[in-house]
Each structure stands twice: as C-alpha cells, then as structure tokens.
Amino acid sequence: MEFTAKQIADYVGGKVEGDSQASVNTFAKIEEGKKGAISFLSNLKYLHYIYDTESSIVLINEDVKLERETKATLIRVKDAYECVAKLLQLYASMKPKKVGIDSLAFIHPSAKVGKDCYIGPFVAIGPNVTIGDGCVLHPHVTVGEEASVGNNTEIYSNAVVYHHCKVGNNCVLHAGCVIGADGFGFAPNTEGYDKIPQIGNVVIEDNVEIGANTCVDRSTMGSTIIHKGVKLDNLVQVAHNVEVGENTVMSAQVGIAGSTKIGSWCMFGGQVGIAGHISIGDKTFLGAQSGVPGNIKGDQTLIGTPPMEPKAYFKSQAIFRRLPDIYKQLNELQKQVEELKKK
User: Fold this and answer.
1) Prior bond of 139 cis (ω within 30°)
2) Could you say which of 163, 164, 240, 277 is catalytic?
3) Ordered DSSP codes for 119-185
4) In a 10 Å sphere around its CB, with 0-12 CB exposed, 13-18 middle and 19+ buried, how is residue 246 labelled?
5) The predicted structure's pLDDT at residue 171
6) pLDDT confidence of residue 342
C-alpha cells in the first residue's frame, strides 16, 4: 500500500516541503535510502546523508536548519523519532493476522481459548488456562496450569508462562523468555542447601513487553509484579518478589535481586545491577553498569558504583586515571618527610 507525503503529514501533524504527492510503500534508513521509501532524521550525526539520500520522503525535526536543498521531499515534525514509531505501528497493524488452532497444538480440555486467536504447532496449554481474545501463540509456547493470558497478547516461540501466572492485555513476550520460574531461594544447612518452595506467582499487567531470554521469577509468597507499560530488554533478570513500577524501561542484562521495589518511569541502562530488599524512587535514571547497593530517592540521574551524579562520577574517573602518578608522588613526599625528620 502506498501513501503520499500529504497523507503522511496529515497523519503525523507535519508540514510538507517539496512534492506533496511523492509516494512511499516501505521504510529505509536514511543512509540506505531508495526510491519509494520513507526515512527519518533525528540524530544530527546523520545530517549529511539527507542531501543525497535516495529515499522519496524524509521525516525531519522542524528546528533543523539545512545548508542546501534536498532531493527528497521533507516532512517537518516536532519529533521525527516519535513520528516514525507511529508510522511503523500503523504499518505493522496493517499486516494480516494469523487466526486458527494448528492441529499439532495441545490444548487441555479444561482450558479456554478466546475468539480470533492463533495457536501454533506444538503449543502446550495446560489445565484451567485462560487465553483471551485475539492472542497469538507461536510454535512451542508453553502455558502452565491455571495461568491466564489477556486479550491481544503475542507470545513468541519457546517462551514459557509457568503455572498460576497472569499476563495482561496487549503484551508481547519474546522468544525464550520465562515467566514464573522459581525464585532463587535456598537455606544453608550443615550438608548443603534446602530449597525454599516458591509458592507465589508472577503478575504482568497490560501493555508490557518482555525481551528474548528474559526471566521474571515467581515469588516465594504473594506475587512478583510487573506493572503496566513496562518494557524489559533481552536477558534481563527480575528476581522473586520484585515489583517494577509503571512505564519503567530496562536495557539488556539488567539484574534485580529479590524483594526490591522499583518506581514508575525509571530508565536503567545495560548491565545495571540492583541489590535486594531496597527501594528505588520514581523517575530514577541509572547509567549503564551502575551498581546499586542501597535505597535511592527518585527524580535523579545517577551513574557508577555506588551511583552518583554524572558530574561527580566523571570527575572521580579523571582522578582515578591519575592514581598511579599520585601514588608515586605520595611516596616521594613521604621519603622527603622521613629525611627531614632525620635531620
């Protein structure tokens, strides 16, 4: 399906510069542009590509100033990145949706599957499971006993939703993610470790997306809770009894230890590590590889281990690089002091 620059501008609330009837039917990166494609420019590092890109249309922020004319038709918007996301969502929604239950799927007689679902081959749905309307379960998905999945949720291949866990509406669980495996609970004894049974569950609210091979562990008692709008990247570990607030996002390899409470609208960079039994306030922004040993109040940006304000962190790193020279100077001063004492 093709769309003109005018149609796109009307949809995203932008202004056309150039041929309003220029049409596109696909997307392309600005540096790989081709005729009939729409691209976007939000990072000024790529500004030089705009003059020679072969894309027919480019979304660009309204405040960007250009040195010369472009071959492509421009659509100026407030936020090009936000607008291309909106267009990609529209594009994805227009793809035909699979419907039907494959003959190789297993659905327990007591399970309930909603209308207009797709259940792929080798999916296993256990006793008393509830699957909502419009769900898509790709091949080899497993949904355990008495678990529930809300409406319009998509679960990719080899993902597992353990027994008694709950997944909300409009969620996406990517391949290999595990919802509701046992929390890491062991009590040491004289001969080794006694396993502490994990009798709780996981509750995932609406509009949550969980990346490939990410694990959200079931609670010892009660629930591990992922509140609505949360986005977890690949390879994230959420331990037992953790609670993650609304619209919080985490990059790959973040690890959260047990019983920690994370606020709303937080952003954690890759490989952030968070200790157990602490709380992190709303709108906390943690830079990549930060290590958090204690409570953090909200509304701040921090980096490092222990986390500190970015300005202080980078000053500390500058001093750290000079430590060998400082240590050498200190030894020399100490020798001079000893010689003065002898005199």
Assistant:
1) no
2) 240
3) E-TT-EE-TT-EE-TT-EE-TT-EE-TT-EE-TT-EE-TT-EE-TT-EE-TT-EE-TT-EESPPP--
4) middle
5) 98
6) 84
The packing angle between helices 5-12 and 80-93, to 10°, is 110
Burial 197-206 (b: 16+ CB within 10 A, else e): ebebbbbbbb
DSSP 31: G
214 — phi, psi (to 5°)? -85, 145
Residues 301 and 280: beta-carbon distance below 8 Å: no
In the structure encoding, which two tokens stand for residue 282, read together? Answer: 């709303």
Give every residue of the chain whose pLDDT is below 50, as ranges. Answer: none
Q: What is the C-alpha separation between 315 and 226, in angstroms, rounded?
A: 36
Full-model pTM: 0.88
- Give the residue carrying structure tokens 């629930």: 223
Residues with Cβ < 8 Å from 259, sequence gap 6 or more? 239, 240, 241, 242, 276, 277
108 is known as an active-site residue: no
pLDDT, residue 309, reads 94
**Residue 60: CB atoms within 10 Å:** 25
Q: Within 10 Å of residue 266's Cβ, how many Cβ atoms? A: 23
- pLDDT tens-digit profile of 173-210? 999 999 999 999 999 999 999 999 999 999 999 999 99
**Amino acid 74: pLDDT:** 96
Residue 267's pLDDT is what?
98
Say if residue 184 is exposed, middle or buried (CB neighbours under 10 Å; 0-12, 13-18, 19+).
middle
Distance CA 17, CA 141 (A): 48
Sorted by sequence, the CB contacts under 8 Å of residue 323 that are 6+ apart come out as: none
Q: Which residue has the tokens 């679960």?
A: 155
**8 A C-beta contact, residue 263 and residue 246:** no
